[in-house]
Amino acid sequence: MSNNVPIPNVLPIYPIKEQIVFPYMVLPVFFTTETAPIIEEAMRNDQLLGVVYCPGSKNVCSFDDHPRIGTVCKINQLIKFPSGGGKATFEGISRFALNSPVSNDPCLTSSIRVIPEQDSQGVVSEALVQSVNALLKIALAYGQPLPEDVMKMIDRIEHPGRLADMVAVYIGIPLDVQQQLLTILDPIERLKSVFIHLTNEVQKMQVKGEIQTEVTKRLGKNQKENILREQMKQIQQELGEQDPRQAEVNELRTRIRQANMPDEVLMVAEKELRRLEQINPASPEYTVSRGYLDYLCAAPWEKGTEDNLDVSKAEAVLDEDHYSLKEVKQRILEYLAVRSLRDTTKGPILCFVGPPGVGKTSLGRSIARAMGRKFIRFSLGGMKDEAEIRGHRRTYIGALPGRVIQELCRAESNNPVFMLDEVDKIGQDFRGDPSSALLEVLDPEQNDSFKDHYMDVPFDLSKVMFITTANLLDPIPHALKDRMEVIRLSGYSDEDKRQICFKYLIPKQIEENGLAEFPLEFSEAAIAKITQDYTREAGVRSLERKIAAICRKVAKEITQGGEARQRIDASDVEALLGPCTYFADVASEEDRVGVVTGLAWTASGGDILFVEAAKMPGNKGLTLTGSLGDIMQESAKAALTYVRGRTEDFGIDADFFEHHDLHIHVPSGAIPKDGPSAGVTIATAIISLLSGRPARRDIAMTGELTLSGRILPIGGVKEKVLAARRAGVKTVLLPARNKEHLAELEENILEGIDVELVESVDQVVEKILLPR
């Protein structure tokens, strides 16, 4: 190529959009019929034309569309096609600047100004040339495509401008950047721009190369594992063995088919299995997916036990396991009777409420045995996380289904007797409210589609017979209480405890304490003494512990070579258990002024309490002690108001209150006391004190008092009557409106005790206060 070709001042302008043409560059160009006139005009003009970059969709551009810097080219070779176009070879000669258009016929011609290449020899130029050459070699090492003859040509170029143009063409610089390089007339600045761009490209190639090396290394490792895995498969096939992973997938597929899942659940399981097949066994996701499928297959979708619908047989089983508890047994037999007449899947939600030790939990096990169902027990006491009920979502590490689904999977039955113990002791904090999560579980109208967070598919809980237990009904949220049928277990009478001892507790403790070969007999008097002097409770838990203590002491005597006892009488009890723990508070006390026996209901059953009244000089003051709650304090104030309004009727000085203060005390001050049933007791104590008439200690009373003197009904009749019997009370005064509750009590509870119904304080005073 030569740069000494004479260039006229006016040239035809050829727009090009696929490539930037630099000086000393040879480029083949295909032209069309639209641009053919430009080529013909150039051939008439010493084969010279001006080539400019004109991006866009048009083949012919106007003068204003062209950039102002282009390259003068010479057509070295021309081949025309019969269709009208052709091919020409352009050789770049020099840069030029467009001045102004001259003509548009037959093509655009313009006046130009040739821009000669500046001379830039020097130290900076040489350093830049060497640096660019070095970077090009690095780019070649990282795989930059560059023809070998071009690299040799670049090595011989010492002019920075020509080197910049050559490198710009062959290293893939974007066309708009090439156009900018074409407009930079200073060779040093142009080579600097190329150097910066080439540096960025080399850095990208280095990072890309490092990534490619790492990917290749990993792919090589995976490819090696795949090859080894395929070889292992071939070896296993030769040995007649199966691929462990495929065997696992096939096993899961078989379990899914045999699980009798609902259609909706089956679709989820099959989708998860297909996903499992695509996961690498080394991935944590594989374990999560596999565990989920295990639970889906283990859930008892259609697996259950057949109910024993023979009511008579079920009644015999309940009577065999538990003494008394007539109301509870009746409710279970009613349920079985309905099931025998109508095949319904909805189970009742029973809630056993009663003091500790009355057999609430063991009753659930007996119900399961009577119905022929499996038994599950789950304690809710202290639970604070609702995920224990509903499960965790599978996005969490270590996620599991809730305890409801877990226990059903463990029992392998969809219709067990499921006992939720201590429902009144559920906790609640920032982690959640388990009692609210139980609403869906214990609602017969919606638990047929219970959705555990982990399983995320509906499960039918309507076949499960849920039973909850509680000591108190008040702590249970109202919404949860509304979904349950409450059955109260009041406690046992002395006769009940005697029967339970001989039928259940004594044989059990003899067996557990190794006395099966040394049968031990307890007399009725011994059991009565243990019941009255060593235990004072509604249930039989402490009673069982005392019997166990006696059995242990007898076992110790036998192991130390002593003579084995054959019988335990009342006289032996104190020697084995030590001094009495409880005393008959009522029977051992004499009648006193201002001291009245009352009855109370507590979480551990009924109990007696004494209300004491004392007077002192003062001015209408009232002091209340004994850890009384707000309700009992209000009852005391109401009782005092009633008495002050009727001083003349009760023989009390009219001006007594003007010069005296009253102090009302309920002993055992460390024990909190509250409830709406102490009003009549407090009023009677005040009347006894102020009238000077002693109150009978063997008469106990209960009832709330109005300001007009009427006695309102109370709750816990059975518990309070049993407490009176344990304390040696002879007569119990109950509100007249509790007559119906009294009729529901068993005959043996009222044996040896006289129950009288009263409507007003006048009747109470007449019965309990003795003459002065």
Automatic annotation (TrEMBL):
Record domain Lon N-terminal: where: 11-202
Q: Which GO terms describe its cellular component?
A: cytoplasm
Q: Which CDD domains match?
A: RecA-like_Lon
**Molecular function terms, GO-annotated:** ATP binding; ATP hydrolysis activity; ATP-dependent peptidase activity; sequence-specific DNA binding; serine-type endopeptidase activity
The active-site annotation reads 677, 720
Localization per Swiss-Prot or TrEMBL: Cytoplasm
Name the residues that bind ATP.
354-361
Q: Which InterPro entries match?
A: AAA+_ATPase, ATPase_AAA_core, Lon_bac, Lon_bac/euk-typ, Lon_lid, Lon_proteolytic, Lon_Prtase, Lon_prtase_N
Sorted alphabetically, which PROSITE patterns does this protein's record hold?
Answer: LON_N (PS51787), LON_PROTEOLYTIC (PS51786), LON_SER (PS01046)
What upregulates it?
A: By heat shock.
Q: Which domain of life is it from?
A: Bacteria
Task: Give the multimer and partner information.
Answer: Homohexamer. Organized in a ring with a central cavity.
Q: Which GO terms describe its biological process?
A: cellular response to heat; protein quality control for misfolded or incompletely synthesized proteins
Q: Which family does the record assign?
A: Belongs to the peptidase S16 family.
Query: Which keywords describe this protein according to UniProt?
Result: ATP-binding, Cytoplasm, Hydrolase, Nucleotide-binding, Protease, Serine protease, Stress response
Could you say which EC number(s) this protein's record lists?
3.4.21.53
Q: Which reaction does it catalyse?
A: Hydrolysis of proteins in presence of ATP
Query: What task does this protein carry out?
Result: ATP-dependent serine protease that mediates the selective degradation of mutant and abnormal proteins as well as certain short-lived regulatory proteins. Required for cellular homeostasis and for survival from DNA damage and developmental changes induced by stress. Degrades polypeptides processively to yield small peptide fragments that are 5 to 10 amino acids long. Binds to DNA in a double-stranded, site-specific manner.
**Which Pfam family is one of this chain's hits?**
Lon_C
Q: Which residues form the Lon proteolytic domain?
A: 590-771
* Taxonomic source organism: Malonomonas rubra DSM 5091
| EC main group | hydrolase
Quick one: which gene encodes this?
lon
Which protein is depicted? Lon protease
Asked if the keyword Cell wall biogenesis/degradation belongs to this entry, the reply reads no
